[in-house]
Design brief:
Elements lengths: L4 E7 L4 H12 L4 E8 L5 H8 L3 E4 L6 H15 L3 E4 L8 H7 L2 E4 L11 H7 L4 E8 L9 E8 L6 H26 L6
Parallel strand pairs: 1-2, 1-4, 2-3, 4-5
Antiparallel strand pairs: 5-6, 6-7
C-alpha cells in the first residue's frame, strides 16, 4: 500500500491556488493530501478556505525577526513531516536556513527568468510581450531565482486588460502546479530529502 504524501502550503492572500490544491487532491485517487496551511496573515482568504476544508492553520504574524519566525515555522513543519512545502502566494522572504532545510517550491506568473518580482504580469504587458506564462521553481534566497522545475506559456493579446491576462495565467498555473506536485512526489519521494 502506498503511503499518503503530505503537502504543507504557505499563503498570505486569497487562497485560490491553495483551495484548488486542497480540492483536487481531495477528489483524485493520487495518494497526496494537503495537511496544513502556514500563513503570515491570520484573516486572509486562504485561512477561510483551509477552515472549509478542515485543514489545520498555523499563523506566524510576527516578522520583525525573520530568523526567529522561520525557525518557529520549521518547528511546526518538523511536527507535520511534510513531503513537500509549497508557496502559493506567500508574500514573505524565507531565510536561507529554512530554504535549505525544506526546499520549498513556488509559482510565478512569468516565464522566469523574465519579469521577476511582484508585478510580473504588468511588467510583461508593459514590455509588449507576445508570450508570457507561469513557472514552478524551487525557492531560493533571492526572490524568483530558484531552479526551474516546469514552465507553461500563455499568449498575450494586444489591448487585453491586465486582470484578464492574469486570470488566464492563473488557470494554467493551477494545472501546471498540480501536475508538478504529482511528478515530484511520485518519482522522487520526499522533495526535502
Amino acid at each position: 500500500m502506498t503511503r499518503q504524501k503530505k503537502i504543507v502550503c504557505l499563503a498570505s492572500g486569497s487562497g485560490s491556488l491553495f483551495e484548488f490544491l486542497a480540492t483536487q487532491f481531495g477528489l483524485c485517487e493520487v495518494p497526496i493530501e494537503v495537511v496544513a496551511l502556514l500563513t503570515d496573515v491570520a484573516d486572509c482568504g486562504a485561512v477561510q478556505k483551509a477552515d472549509r476544508h478542515n485543514i489545520s492553520v498555523h499563523t506566524f504574524e510576527s516578522w520583525q525577526n525573520p530568523e526567529e519566525t522561520c525557525l518557529a515555522m520549521s518547528v511546526t513543519l518538523e511536527n507535520l513531516q511534510p513531503d513537500l512545502v509549497i508557496g502559493v502566494g506567500f508574500m514573505k522572504i524565507l531565510t536561507k536556513t529554512f530554504i535549505h532545510r525544506w526546499h520549498p517550491i513556488n509559482t510565478h506568473p512569468s516565464l522566469l527568468p523574465a519579469f521577476k518580482g511582484a508585478h510580473a504580469v504588468r511588467d510583461s504587458m508593459n514590455y509588449n510581450s507576445f508570450v508570457t506564462g507561469t513557472s514552478v521553481h524551487r525557492m531560493a534566497e533571492e526572490v524568483d531565482q530558484g531552479s526551474l522545475l516546469t514552465q507553461s506559456p500563455c499568449i498575450c493579446f494586444s489591448n487585453e486588460p491586465e486582470e484578464n491576462l492574469h486570470a488566464r495565467i492563473k488557470l494554467i498555473e493551477k494545472a501546471q502546479l498540480f501536475h508538478t506536485i504529482i511528478s515530484l512526489l511520485s518519482h522522487k519521494g520526499p522533495s526535502h530529502v
